[in-house]
What we know:
It is elongated, with a radius of gyration of 20 Å. By secondary structure, the protein is mainly α. The chain has 3 helices and 2 strands. It is about 55% helix and about 10% strand. The chain has a two-stranded antiparallel ribbon. It starts with a helix and ends with a helix. It has helices spanning about 5-45, 75, 95-115, and strands at about 45-50, 60-65. The longest helix is centred in the N-terminal third of the chain and has 39 residues, at about 5-45. The protein has one domain. Helix 1 crosses helix 3.
Amino acid sequence: MKLPPKNQEQITQNMLSEAKAGLIQEAFLKTGGNISYRLLEVTGAALINYEILGNTDRALHAHIVPRYANEADEQRRKPIWFSDLANAPKLNPECDKELMDKMARAIPKRLSAIVKL
């Protein structure tokens, strides 16, 4: 059974939209993986927690959180939202410049290595 041209056009548009969304999601996840590997490399963190949520903010986003060996085991295993965020260190561009510069160098270095593969 052949579909009318209008229906076929809509199906084609839907398939293209789904393919584009899939590529965006794939790039998003690969980028997050790259960032987390660089965080491990640059910070000496013991592990990385990923939190990908969409319940409140309806935009594709993730929280990539380095976790450290000196954190209590119970705390390190929990989502970051269960931490005492009020007393957590805040980003300070002046104090955190060295870390920011290291990340700025590490991420493109890794991406260029991936592209060469």
